[in-house]
C-alpha cells in the first residue's frame, strides 16, 4: 500500500491518504531482453521490494472508485491522475539500449535539428512537434520490427531486431529527438553577432558556448528533481496526452477496450488531418466566425473588440474558431482538453481583464495608445524628427558598434510601445513576482516534505515507487554537469568576445538557479510557464548597462538555463510515467542535445554565409527571412542600450520594472482569504496566470480564445465531472489525436502549400476566403505617417 497526498487540494496538501490497492494486469509487451538486465540499469538490491498496484486507463473502474449510485468517481486530484489515467505496469527487463533505438533516435534528432534550424530562418513559423515525432517514431519502429528478420535468424539479426518495438525504445527515441526540435538560444546569439556585430566565433568557441548554455539547466533540474519530478503533485498536465498515447500504442494491444481506444485515436487523427485542409487553405473564414463583424462591417471598434481571424486584428471576443491549429495546444503547454480547469479559469479571468484594459487604454489615450496601432509589437516614434506613430528605426540612435548614441537619441527621441504591448510586458513582470509568492505560500509544505522523503527514497508516489527498481542518477553527476558547463561558459565568455564579465555570468547563473524551482513547480502543477526572459534582460541591463552584446549573453545563461532545466524535468517525469530507467533518460537527453546543437550550428553557419543580405533585409524573401534574429537583436538593443532611459525613474514605462515587486503581493489576499473563508475555494485561483494574461491578446490570431474556453468547460468541467469513465478512457487520447493530426497536416502543408519548398500556392478568393480580413471585419492598418487607416477594401498583405 502506498500513501499519497492530494496536492490539488492545497489546504490538505500535507495530509496523506491511502491509494487504492488495485489489481495488476501483465503487459502484453513483457518480452525478454536479448541483453542482460544491466541494459535497463536494474538495481538488484531493490528490484523486488516495491510492489505498487493501480488501474489501467482502459479498464473499468474498481468498486473503490465508484460512487454510491454506481457511477465512476470523477478525476479530481493528482493522485487520481497518477493511479487511474496512467498505467503503472512495468517490465524491468524490457530492452532500451538497442541498435534500433539509437539508429532511429539519432536519425530523428538530425531530422528535427536540421529542419528546426532551417525554419528558424524561414518566413513561416514552423517547428517539429513532439506529437509529430511520437507518431513518426512509432511508424518507423513498427516497420523496422515487422520488415527485418527477427532474433531467431542469428546473432546479427538479434542485434538489429531483437524483439517487437518496445514502449521504452519509443520513449527514449522521443526524448532524444524532441530535444532538438527548436533552435538553441545560443544560435540566436551567434546569428546576431555575425549579422549585426561582425563577430564570428570560431567553431571551438561556438561549440563550447552551445554545450555550456544547453547543459547548465540540466544540472540544475537534476539537483532539484526531488520536488520538481518525483512527487505526485508534480503532474505536468501537457504530458498526460503523450503518455496516454504511449499506453494505447504499446500496452495490452489485444484487449478489446484497448483496441477501441486505439481505433478512436486513428479515426480522430485522420479526420482532423483531412479537416484542417478546409480552414487552413480552402475557407480561412472558418478560423474566425464573428457575428458582430458580419453585422457591423464599418466600425473600427467592432474590429478591435470582436475581430481576430488575422494577426494583430483584434481581441476576438465571442468569435467561433473551427481551426484546431489555433484552438488546440499547438504543441504548447496549455490546451483545452488537458489543462486543469483551475488553470483555465484563472487564464480566462485574465483574458476578460485584458479586454477591458486594452479598450480602456486606447479609448482614454493612456500612454499615448491612440497614436499607435491597437495591437502591435513594434517600437514607434512618439516625438522628434518623424511623425508620431511611425515605426521607430533603432539604427538611427546607435553607433556602428551598436552602442547608444546619446546625441542622436536627443534628436530622434525615445521610442514608445503600443499600449497593448506595454501591458503585455507589465503582465509578464507581475506574473514573475506572483509566481514566487504563489509557490512559496501554497507549496512550501509539500516541497519540503518531498525533499525529506527523497533522502530515504520514500516519496509516496506510485510511479516513483515502481521506479525504485532502477538505479538513480547520482547527485554528483548533476553537480558535475553544472561545474563542467560553468567552466565552458566562463572560458567562452572571454574567448568569444561576449563583453560579459565573469561576475555577471555568475549573477546570470544564480538568477537561473533561483527562478528554476518556482517556475518548474508552477509549470508542473498548472501547465503554465512563467516567462523569465524579460527578467533576465532587465537584470542584465542593470548589471552591464548600455551593452547589448553583454545583454544577449546574460539572457542566454539567465533565461535559457531555466528553460533547459524545465525540458529535462519534464522528460524525467515522462520517463517516470513510462518507467524509462533514469540513467537511460539522462543519456538520451544529453545525446540529443549535443547532436542537435552541433547540427544547428552547422546549418546556421551555412545559411548566414549564403543568405546574408536577405537575412539583413527587413522584408526578406518568400524563402528566407531574418525576422527572428532581427527581433532577438532588437530586444537586446532596447534593453542593453535604452533600459536606463526606457524604464528609469520619470520615464513613461517606469512602472513596468516595479511590477515584479507589485506581483509579489498579488497572491497574498487570496491566501489570507482562503484561511478565513475556505468554502470560497480561493486556493484554486492561480494568480500568476491571471497576471500574465493581462497582455494575453496583445499579439497573433485571437479568434480561438472563446471557442477554447467553451471546450475547456465541456472537457474539464462537464465530461470530467459527469462522464468520468469516458473522460478517463478517451479525453486525453482524443486530445493527442487532435493535436497530432493537426500538426501532421501543418507540417505537410507548409511544404506543399505555404511556400517552405520555395513556391506558395494561392487559394482563389471566394466567400470564405475574402480579400480583406477573413471574418469580414473592417481592416485597420498603420500608414507611414503614423495614422491608423481603416477600410473594408484594404486587402491582406
Descriptive overview:
With 797 residues, this protein is an all-alpha fold. It has a domain at 99-230 and 461-665. 56% of the residues lie in helices and 3% in strands. It is built from 29 helices and six strands. The chain has helices at residues 78-85, 99-120, 130-147, 155-160, 167-178, 185-197, 203-223, 225-228, 240-250, 256-275, 277-282, 291-295, 300-306, 324-327, 341-364, 406-412, 419-455, 462-467, 475-495, 502-526, 533-543, 548-578, 582-616, 627-647, 655-665, 668-676, 687-692, 705-722, 724-752; strands at residues 3-5, 16-18, 379-381, 415-417, 779-782, 788-791. The strands form three sheets. It has a two-stranded antiparallel ribbon. A two-stranded antiparallel ribbon has the order 3-4. A two-stranded antiparallel ribbon has the order 5-6. A hairpin with a 5-residue loop joins strand 5 and strand 6. The longest helix is centred in the middle third of the chain and has 37 residues, at 419-455. It is globular. 54% of the residues are buried.
Task: Explain the layout of strands and helices.
Layout: E1 3-5, E2 16-18, H1 78-85, H2 99-120, H3 130-147, H4 155-160, H5 167-178, H6 185-197, H7 203-223, H8 225-228, H9 240-250, H10 256-275, H11 277-282, H12 291-295, H13 300-306, H14 324-327, H15 341-364, E3 379-381, H16 406-412, E4 415-417, H17 419-455, H18 462-467, H19 475-495, H20 502-526, H21 533-543, H22 548-578, H23 582-616, H24 627-647, H25 655-665, H26 668-676, H27 687-692, H28 705-722, H29 724-752, E5 779-782, E6 788-791
Antiparallel strand pairs: 1-2, 3-4, 5-6
Helix pairs in contact: 2-3, 2-5, 2-23, 3-5, 5-22, 5-23, 6-7, 6-22, 6-23, 6-24, 7-19, 7-22, 7-23, 9-29, 10-29, 17-20, 17-25, 20-21, 20-22, 21-22, 21-24, 22-23, 22-24, 28-29
Amino acid at each position: 500500500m502506498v500513501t499519497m497526498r492530494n496536492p490539488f487540494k492545497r489546504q490538505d496538501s500535507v495530509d496523506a491518504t491511502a491509494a487504492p490497492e488495485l489489481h495488476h494486469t501483465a503487459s502484453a509487451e513483457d518480452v525478454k531482453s536479448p541483453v542482460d538486465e544491466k541494459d535497463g540499469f536494474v538495481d538488484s538490491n531493490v528490484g523486488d521490494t516495491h510492489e505498487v498496484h493501480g488501474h489501467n486507463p482502459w479498464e473499468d473502474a474498481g468498486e473503490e472508485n465508484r460512487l454510491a449510485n454506481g457511477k465512476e468517481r470523477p478525476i479530481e486530484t493528482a493522485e487520481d491522475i497518477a493511479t487511474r489515467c496512467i498505467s503503472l505496469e512495468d517490465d524491468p527487463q524490457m530492452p532500451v539500449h538497442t541498435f534500433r533505438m539509437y539508429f532511429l533516435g539519432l536519425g530523428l534528432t538530425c531530422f528535427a535539428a536540421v529542419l528546426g534550424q532551417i525554419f528558424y530562418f524561414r518566413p513561416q513559423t514552423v517547428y517539429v512537434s513532439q506529437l509529430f515525432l511520437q507518431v513518426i517514431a512509432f511508424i518507423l519502429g513498427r516497420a523496422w520490427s515487422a520488415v527485418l528478420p527477427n532474433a531467431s535468424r542469428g546473432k546479427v539479426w538479434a542485434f538489429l531486431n531483437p524483439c517487437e518495438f518496445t514502449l521504452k525504445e519509443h520513449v527514449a527515441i522521443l526524448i532524444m529527438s524532441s530535444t532538438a526540435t527548436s533552435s538553441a538560444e545560443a544560435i540566436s546569439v551567434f546569428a546576431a553577432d555575425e549579422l549585426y556585430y561582425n563577430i564570428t566565433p570560431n567553431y571551438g568557441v561556438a561549440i563550447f558556448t552551445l554545450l555550456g548554455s544547453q547543459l547548465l539547466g540540466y544540472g540544475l533540474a537534476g539537483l532539484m528533481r526531488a520536488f520538481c519530478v518525483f512527487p505526485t503533485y508534480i503532474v505536468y498536465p501537457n504530458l498526460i496526452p503523450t503518455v496516454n498515447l504511449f499506453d494505447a500504442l504499446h500496452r495490452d494491444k489485444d484487449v478489446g477496450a484497448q483496441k477501441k481506444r486505439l481505433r478512436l485515436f486513428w479515426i480522430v487523427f485522420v479526420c482532423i488531418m483531412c479537416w484542417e485542409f478546409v480552414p487552413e487553405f480552402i475557407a480561412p473564414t472558418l478560423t474566425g466566425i464573428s457575428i458582430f463583424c458580419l453585422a457591423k462591417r464599418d466600425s473600427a471598434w467592432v474590429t478591435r473588440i470582436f475581430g481576430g481571424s488575422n494577426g494583430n486584428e483584434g481581441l476576438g471576443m465571442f468569435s467561433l474558431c473551427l481551426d484546431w491549429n489555433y484552438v488546440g495546444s499547438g504543441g504548447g503547454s496549455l490546451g483545452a482538453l488537458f489543462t486543469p480547469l483551475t488553470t483555465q479559469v484563472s487564464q480566462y479571468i485574465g483574458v476578460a481583464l485584458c479586454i477591458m484594459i486594452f479598450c480602456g487604454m486606447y479609448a482614454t489615450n493612456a500612454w499615448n495608445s491612440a497614436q499607435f496601432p491597437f495591437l502591435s509589437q513594434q517600437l514607434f516614434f512618439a516625438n522628434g524628427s518623424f511623425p508620431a506613430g511611425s515605426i521607430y528605426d533603432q539604427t538611427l540612435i546607435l553607433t556602428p558598434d551598436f552602442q547608444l548614441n546619446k546625441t542622436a537619441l536627443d534628436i530622434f527621441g525615445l521610442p514608445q510601445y503600443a499600449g497593448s504591448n506595454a501591458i503585455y510586458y507589465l503582465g509578464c513582470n507581475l506574473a514573475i513576482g506572483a509566481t514566487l509568492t504563489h509557490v512559496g505560500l501554497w507549496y512550501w509544505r509539500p516541497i519540503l516534505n518531498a525533499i525529506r522523503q527523497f533522502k530515504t527514497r520514500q516519496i509516496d508516489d506510485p510511479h516513483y515507487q515502481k521506479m525504485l527498481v532502477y538505479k538513480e542518477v547520482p547527485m554528483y553527476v548533476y553537480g558535475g554537469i553544472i561545474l563542467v558547463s560553468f567552466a565552458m561558459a566562463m572560458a567562452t565568455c572571454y574567448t568569444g568576445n561576449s563583453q560579459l564579465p565573469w561576475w555577471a555570468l555568475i549573477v546570470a547563473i544564480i538568477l537561473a538557479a533561483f527562478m528554476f524551482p518556482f517556475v518548474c513547480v508552477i509549470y508542473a502543477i498548472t501547465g503554465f510557464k512563467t516567462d523569465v526572459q524579460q527578467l533576465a534582460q532587465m537584470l542584465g541591463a542593470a548589471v552591464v548597462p548600455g551593452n547589448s552584446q553583454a545583454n544577449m549573453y546574460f539572457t542566454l545563461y539567465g533565461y535559457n538555463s531555466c528553460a533547459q532545466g524545465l525540458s529535462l524535468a519534464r522528460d524525467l517525469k515522462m520517463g517516470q510515467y513510462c518507467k524509462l530507467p533514469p540513467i537511460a533518460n539522462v543519456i538520451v537527453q544529453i545525446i540529443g542535445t549535443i547532436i542537435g546543437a552541433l547540427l544547428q550550428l552547422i546549418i546556421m553557419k551555412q545559411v548566414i554565409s549564403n543568405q546574408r543580405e536577405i537575412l539583413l533585409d527587413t522584408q526578406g524573401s518568400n524563402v528566407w527571412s531574418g525576422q527572428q534574429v532581427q527581433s532577438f537583436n532588437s530586444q537586446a538593443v532596447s534593453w542593453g542600450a535604452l533600459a536606463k532611459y526606457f524604464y528609469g525613474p520619470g520615464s513613461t514605462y517606469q512602472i513596468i520594472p516595479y511590477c515584479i515587486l507589485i506581483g509579489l503581493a498579488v497572491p497574498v489576499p487570496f491566501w489570507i482569504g482562503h484561511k478565513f473563508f475556505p468554502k470560497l475555494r480561493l486556493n484554486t485561483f492561480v494568480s500568476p496566470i491571471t497576471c500574465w494574461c493581462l497582455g494575453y491578446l496583445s499579439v497573433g490570431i485571437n479568434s480561438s480564445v472563446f471557442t477554447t474556453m467553451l471546450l475547456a468547460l465541456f472537457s474539464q468541467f462537464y465530461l470530467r465531472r459527469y462522464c468520468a469513465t469516458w473522460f478517463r478512457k478517451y479525453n486525453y487520447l482524443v486530445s493527442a489525436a487532435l493535436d497530432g493530426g493537426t500538426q501532421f497536416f501543418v507540417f505537410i502543408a507548409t511544404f506543399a502549400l505555404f511556400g517552405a519548398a520555395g513556391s506558395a500556392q494561392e487559394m482563389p478568393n471566394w466567400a470564405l476566403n475574402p480579400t480583406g480580413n477573413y471574418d469580414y471585419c473592417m481592416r485597420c492598418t498603420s500608414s507611414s505617417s503614423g495614422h491608423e487607416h481603416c477600410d473594408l477594401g484594404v486587402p491582406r498583405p
